[in-house]
Amino acid sequence: MNVTIVGAGSIGLLIAAFSSKVGHKVTLITNRESQAQILNEKGLIFKTNQGTVEKYRIEAVAVKEIETIRTDCVIFAVKSYHLKQVLDRLSGSIQAKAVLFVQNGMSHIECLSLFNHEEIGLAVVEHGAMRLEDNLVSHTGVGRINWSIFQGSKEDSVLPNFFSKSEDVNFPFYHKKDWQKMLQTKLLVNVAINPLTALLQVKNGALLTNDSYYKLMSEIVRETVQVLGMNGKQGLEKVIEVCQATKENESSMLRDRAKGQKTELEAIVGYVIRKANEQSQSVPSLFFLYEAIKGIEQQSFRGAGQ
């Protein structure tokens, strides 16, 4: 199968490595020409969670060089705040049977109306990954990819075939019938872990071992499940499960803060706050988190401009 992955950050490179491993022909679309060049010249280097190193030959193309994308499946693996810009650039250029979105949050659902493809899929990634160099990605935590069909698809169509190809125990796929419940569950995990670890500058596991941090996380979960209409007990159990499984990991938002980069705050916490406002619900903990991370971002940007 021909698979085109838009976005060559940690998740895009991780999916590219496992797609190559099972025999798909992978094309990576990068933001920078320099990254495309090094991927083409040196290949994609994959450091497994066991510490071994694998190398895959893929094709990489900078986004500004793209005219038409002819492929079986396009996977959008860019950050949520880059998605609209990328879609504006590429949506008219995609000739594919299926498109798949793997963004955090739920704001990307509003972009799906731009597509009239046979199959549209959604997925959430629960793996830990870190891009160490432009062509080197490390699998820092084994998780799973949950996927669901938003539109179209039959048993023998592109997306089911793509997800059924892998039997690697370190990269399992799980099909979910209810895409909305799937995204809400991942959103809850992101809201509970990412901004709090970024604010406190701690690894995920600290939210379980520090009593005060745990109380803060529990209150964030309580407010979020109330807004999303989820079961509170099950929601907290899921967040604890992910925290435990990724206890040595730094959240993506914490890494973004450390690098002085923009975070996915709007797509994660901002989305829940907007929903709370629509329902006239008070979410003081979420509001505090949102403004705190927003302030840190603004301070970082001002410092970078000096």
TrEMBL record:
Domain Ketopantoate reductase N-terminal: residue ranges: 3-150
Known EC number: 1.1.1.169
Gene Ontology terms: cellular component: cytoplasm
Domain of life: Bacteria
Top EC category: oxidoreductase
Pathway annotation from the record: Cofactor biosynthesis; (R)-pantothenate biosynthesis; (R)-pantoate from 3-methyl-2-oxobutanoate: step 2/2
Gene Ontology MF terms in the entry: 2-dehydropantoate 2-reductase activity; NADP binding
Catalytic activity: (R)-pantoate + NADP(+) = 2-dehydropantoate + NADPH + H(+)
Keywords: NADP, Oxidoreductase, Pantothenate biosynthesis
Residue ranges of domain Ketopantoate reductase C-terminal in the record: 178-297
Pfam families listed in its UniProt record: ApbA, ApbA_C
BP GO annotations: pantothenate biosynthetic process
InterPro entries named in the record: 6-PGluconate_DH-like_C_sf, 6PGD_dom2, ApbA, Ketopantoate_reductase, KPA_reductase, KPR_N, NAD(P)-bd_dom_sf
Family per record: Belongs to the ketopantoate reductase family.
Function noted in UniProt: Catalyzes the NADPH-dependent reduction of ketopantoate into pantoic acid.
Name of the protein in its database record: 2-dehydropantoate 2-reductase
Phylogenetic classification of the source organism: Bacteria, Bacillati, Bacillota, Bacilli, Bacillales
